[in-house]
Amino acid sequence: MGVAVGILYRIPRALLLYASVTGAIGWLVMHGILVNNGNVIFANFVGSMAVGAASELFARLLKKPATIFIVPGFIPLVPGREAYTTMLYMVDGRYPEGVSMGMLTMLTAGAIAFGLFVSATVYRLLLQNIDAKDKKDKRKIKEWMEE
């Protein structure tokens, strides 16, 4: 599915494999949690964190924007069936089931967005910490050489 979305959004051909791998990683993490009797919302949260981490890693390695890998990566996690079921329940007049499924859909979508946010934030904090340590080490080496 990541390749199809990548083609739709005109991602360069050389990056389609990486974009689809990002989607596969996210889906496999989510599916692995669901198979082990995990919560759907938690599974999507962890899956989107995996997508975010893989996207940031590929972006750094390939010197491209992370968005190129995020968009095809999170599409397999989108709760499309749940949104459809919500609308079906509402149209059929089954409002309690519709509201329940709508809440599940919204919480899942929120978990995906929050997972991407958390992974990007943690990644940037780690890079900032590594860069600060490198600058400190370089400063110490420079001071040592000047002695």
Secondary-structure topology with pairs:
Blueprint (H helix, E strand, L loop, with lengths): L1 H7 L4 H23 L4 H23 L4 H8 L5 H12 L3 H52 L1
Helix pairs in contact: 1-2, 1-4, 2-3, 2-4, 3-4, 3-6, 5-6
Describe, in plain words, how this protein is organized in 3D.
Keywords: Cell inner membrane, Cell membrane, Membrane, Transmembrane, Transmembrane helix. There is one protein chain. The protein has 147 residues and is mainly α. 85% of the residues lie in helices and 0% in strands.
Gyration radius, in Å: 20 Å
Count, helices: 6
Helix and strand string, N-terminal first?
HHHHHH
Main sheet record = none
Secondary structure tally: strands = 0
Mean pLDDT across the residues is 89
| Residue runs with pLDDT of under 50 for 5 or more positions | none
Number of individual domains = 1
Q: Residue share in helices?
A: over 70%
Structural class: mainly alpha
Q: Give the distance, in angstroms, between the N- and C-terminal Cα atoms.
A: 60 Å
Shape: elongated
Strand percentage lies at under 5%
